[in-house]
Inverse folding.
């Protein structure tokens, strides 16, 4: 089959395109400004991609199927041609559901936080136990060299195969406003947590809950919903589940109960109980309570796939975090530089606690870039002021594309700095007019030179490039 991806440069789209090529399809794609590493990944996979969109080019070799990226909207010339000529089209999530999952056991990892890490753990536990899972992971997994992989031919489209998906609640495509995760038809659904996020598509928390409820309704009665036992929103989303619900957490009545937690600088250990009976004791080198919860969810899910406690323990011992999850990327002026994807106040607070566990004697200097469609607005004005507890200094980057919102709707970084300083933490916000300069990270470097000393930890918290700060600190280590 000849498959053409409109918007192939996105991490998930590109990964799925490579997986399609790996199973023998002819794949092409188009996008604007595709840079390494994705441009290199596509070229190495033998995928022809084009810079820019061109309907004439599509007429020369009509694809059997066109995959329309989530970021593609009406007016795109290739999309308009697809609609006018009534060509066969689908979304990325729709393609994964039909081409890669189909009849396989489907483990779908959902929630506001922890999806990438939990899906990576789940896939690796299965892989290390020689179950050869397929998977779709939104980040760059530490134990695999690709973000998407099909189930082997011998297991594909059978109940013996397992496919693990990072289940995004974001909408699917311009023509399908359902959350992506409904296309993966979970046999086992993991719901890590639910908070308000994605303010560009969800008007309020109630709308997000409805989306999760829709996903829960399609879990079969012989499947399971593994839900955070300590999260009221997540528990509310599963109230009407036809499938068995297995709460997982520290709550005394949790079906999968986490107990005897012990945190150390180099490892965390805990015991798990399954429906009141001792299940096993586990260890992870990942710091933070959120890491233990992610592991516990993956353990519960893979138990449904038949893994033993011993197999799960072995897998955890060899698991490596995905890129940009508490990742040490450089040493700068005697400081450890940590890169973390945290861009929501709850995730930032969890990262700060994990860093204090891993580096108990170090001062933490945080750099946060307000970039997501939620944190650039005033929704979390108060929460962002509270989530840097324990930091010695905090630098706030300029609001990304501030022109999108009226002043009263926009995150007030000056007020944010004032509220952080009121807690005895040194703080600075980069001037708003610096946002247009792609090298505004140089202003952060100047801040760091005034506030860090050898032995400190610099934590870069963002889902963006932070004015190329990472490269600046790596180049001047």
């Amino acid at each position: 089959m000849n498959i053409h991806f409109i918007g192939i440069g996105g991490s998930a789209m590109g990964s799925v395109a490579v997986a399609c090529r790996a199973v023998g399809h002819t794949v092409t794609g188009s996008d604007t400004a595709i840079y390494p590493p994705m441009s290199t990944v596509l070229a190495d996979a033998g995928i022809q991609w084009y810079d820019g969109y061109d309907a004439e080019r599509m007429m020369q070799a009509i694809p059997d199927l066109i995959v329309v990226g989530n970021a593609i909207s009406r007016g795109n010339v290739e999309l308009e041609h697809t609609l006018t000529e009534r060509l066969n089209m689908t979304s990325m999530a729709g393609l994964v559901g039909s081409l890669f999952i189909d009849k396989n056991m489907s483990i779908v990892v959902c929630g506001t936080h922890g999806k990438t890490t939990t899906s990576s753990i789940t896939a690796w536990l299965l892989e290390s136990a020689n179950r050869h899972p397929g998977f779709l992971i939104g980040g760059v997994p530490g134990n695999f060299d690709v973000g998407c992989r099909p189930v082997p031919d011998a297991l594909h489209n059978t109940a013996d195969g397992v496919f693990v998906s990072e289940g995004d609640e974001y909408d699917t495509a311009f023509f399908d406003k359902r959350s992506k995760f409904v296309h993966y038809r979970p046999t086992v659904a993991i719901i890590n947590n639910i908070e308000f996020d994605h303010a560009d598509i969800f008007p309020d928390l109630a709308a997000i809950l409805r989306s999760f409820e829709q996903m829960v309704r399609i879990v079969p009665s012989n499947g399971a919903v593994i839900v955070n036992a300590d999260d009221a929103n997540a528990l509310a989303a599963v109230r009407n589940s036809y499938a068995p619900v297995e709460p997982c957490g520290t709550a005394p009545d949790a079906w999968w109960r986490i107990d005897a937690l012990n945190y150390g600088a180099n490892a965390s250990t805990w015991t798990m109980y399954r429906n009141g009976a001792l299940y096993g004791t586990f260890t992870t080198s990942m710091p933070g309570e959120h890491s233990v919860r992610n592991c516990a969810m993956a353990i519960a899910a893979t138990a449904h796939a038949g893994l033993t406690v011993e197999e799960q323990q072995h897998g955890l011992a060899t698991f490596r975090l995905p890129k940009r999850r508490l990742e040490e990327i450089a040493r700068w002026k005697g400081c450890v530089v940590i890169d973390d994807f945290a861009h929501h106040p709850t995730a930032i607070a969890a990262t700060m606690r994990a860093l204090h566990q891993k580096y108990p004697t170090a001062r933490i200097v945080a750099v946060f870039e307000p970039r997501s469609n939620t944190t650039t607005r005033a929704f979390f004005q108060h929460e962002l002021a509270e989530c840097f507890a324990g930091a010695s200094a905090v630098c706030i980057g300029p609001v990304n594309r501030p022109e999108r919102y009226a002043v009263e709707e926009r995150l007030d970084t000056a007020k944010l700095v004032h509220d952080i300083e009121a807690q005895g933490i040194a703080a600075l916000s980069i001037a708003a007019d610096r946002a247009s300069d792609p090298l505004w990270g140089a202003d952060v470097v100047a801040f760091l030179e005034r506030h860090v000393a050898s032995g400190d930890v610099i934590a870069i918290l963002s889902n963006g490039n932070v004015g190329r700060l990472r490269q600046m600190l790596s180049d001047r280590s």
Remarks:
- The longest strand covers residues 256-263.
